[in-house]
Amino acid sequence: MNSLRGIDLNLLVVLEALLAERHISRAALRLHLSQPAVSHALGRLRQLLDDPILVRGKGGLVLSARAHELSGPLAEALAQVRILLGPSGFQPATARRSFRLAMSDYGALVVLPRLLRAVRKAAPNIDLVVSQASREGMTAQVADGEIDMALGVFSHQPEGVQSAELFRESYACAVDAATVRDTGRLDQVAYLARSHVLVATHSERMDAIDTAVAKLGGRRKIACVVPHWSVAPALIAGTNLVLTTARRSLAALEDDPRYAVFAPPFALDDFTFTMIWHQRTEADPAHAWLRERVLAAAATQDSDEPISLRG
Questions:
Q1: Which residue in 212, 95, 200 sits closest to 153, CA to CA?
Q2: pTM given for the model
Q3: CA 114 to CA 248: how far, in whole Å?
Q4: 69 plus 59 within the same structural domain
Q5: How far apart are the first and last CA of the chain?
Q6: Does 197 share its domain with 118?
Q7: What is the CATH number of the domain that holds 259?
């Protein structure tokens, strides 16, 4: 076992960046170090841990099995060290810090603008770095300490991952208005007769809408699958395609004469939009402050300016 006396604890900060970025140059940028300095530190870490840490894989470097095992414990240990060595009280106005968040472009649309304005006003030197991943990917990144929090729809949280409800959301449908001039909406038969646009990270995964349709004995024909909510409305313009998605993401279309927006012609349960984070950050006052800002931004996101999907 290595003695702590002979270990440069700064190497753990480099290791944290390497595990998160999986790329020497990006880790160097994150740490404001030169690439040779990070390469040298990686060599020392490999010797210290007797493990390659990063190995060549398809498309670039990937984590070794040992590195995967270290991700969670390392993030937890460094979080505690930062609390131990940090100031006794968190002062947003003077704090300098970067937080890593993950969310879909839907989450970015309905929460991020208000969150960023609140953060910039109260803590101008705090930065937000936002990424996107699948629900499973975001949950794993929170658990491993790669990100600080995630916003989304999460059916399961692993041990150690905490959650807070941000708001309840319902579904709405949108079509080209020219295709429903007489009724302004579709009944169940017409809905199932048409082809659909699906927003999904995994193109073959059955979502809540398909589950509800299957209970009716039907099946949607998917004409196009896209990973981003924001592009989906543009895909139905000039076609007879149907988009069924989160109501808030269609708010700007309700006053657009080119589109018809209506409730689904069958029962669909509402869903909960949630914030998740790891319990290792519970005692960090900066994390607690940011979580409060997220809750406030979500609570007021219906009361400010209209949501817009158009550039």
A1: 200
A2: 0.70
A3: 15
A4: yes
A5: 57
A6: no
A7: 3.40.190.10
